[in-house]
Amino acid sequence: MAAAYGFSDYAVEEFTREWLEIVKQNYNHPCIITWTPFNESWGISQVETCERQQHFTEGIYYLTKSIDRYRPVIVNDGWEHTISDILTLHDYEEVGKLLKKRYVDCEEEIFDTEVYHSLFKSAMANGYDYIGQPVIISEYGGIAFNNDDSGWGYGNKVNTEEDFVRRFDKITTAVKEIPYVCGYCYTQVTDVQQEINGLMDIDRNFKVNADVIKEINERQIGYWRQIYTKPVADC
Angle formed by the axes of helices 96-105 and 161-176, to 10°? Predict the structure, then answer.
């Protein structure tokens, strides 16, 4: 959903009207699997502490559920969640070991907001508790190739495809080894204008070997490898 530049009565009115139009328009679209009205607190920049903005997100959540009771609603993708069917977190840590260590060692502190999962944003808004929703790392990675500072990605740029694959492998493996994380979404499939962090360029040409990326994504590791390789007699 397009975000307002700032929070105001007018923004609330216009956002609500347009959001309801979008939900009704796309209700029967088979590709829609979840509704996400807000992203990274855009248009609700004080939602972590401001009750008015928090109440606004709750209102949008319940309005959406009243129209579509079947799809999950992620109210504020990335951080500072109020009420949400899935807890989705954005984290662009480029070192796999650090990423895994923070989420494993500080699980309770992240959900209690004593530790910021992405080092600068809290998982929950003030006054809201984690109540056992599925947890997804819905943005991570964002690796860009070094091209004379034209465009950008997240973290340091890489010089070779080998460097790209090595980092992708380490951070993806780290995410998959966090016991309570049940899914992830890499940033991103293709380059978009100044964001040159895609697996493909803007013309949909792969910048890295797709088969290698596929193998890393499908590799069974950690807890899930134990589940799938366990003898049937022991199940």
Answer: 10
Q: CA angle at residue 83 from 80 to 88, to 5 degrees?
A: 55
- Which token pair is 116? 């910021």
Half-sphere exposure (CA, 13 Å, Cβ side) for 203? 1
What separation, in Å, do the N-terminal and C-terminal C-alpha atoms of the chain show? 44
Tens digit of pLDDT at every position of the chain (235 positions): 889 999 999 999 999 999 999 999 999 999 999 999 999 999 999 999 999 999 999 999 999 999 999 999 999 999 999 999 999 999 999 999 999 999 999 999 999 999 999 999 999 999 999 999 999 999 999 999 998 778 999 999 999 999 999 999 999 999 999 999 999 999 999 999 999 999 999 999 999 999 999 999 999 986 555 544 445 444 3
Question: Which is nearest to 91 in space by CA: 82, 78, 80?
Answer: 78
Instruction: Please state the length of the chain.
Output: 235
DSSP string, 147-183: STT-SB-SSS-BSSHHHHHHHHHHHHHHHHTSTTEEE
Question: Is the CB of residue 77 less than 8 Å from the CB of residue 39?
Answer: yes
> Pick from 123, 44, 59, 141: which is nearest to 86 by CA?
123
CA-based nearest residue to 213, from 180, 181, 148, 169: 169
DSSP 234: G
Under 8 Å between Cβ of 53 and 94: no
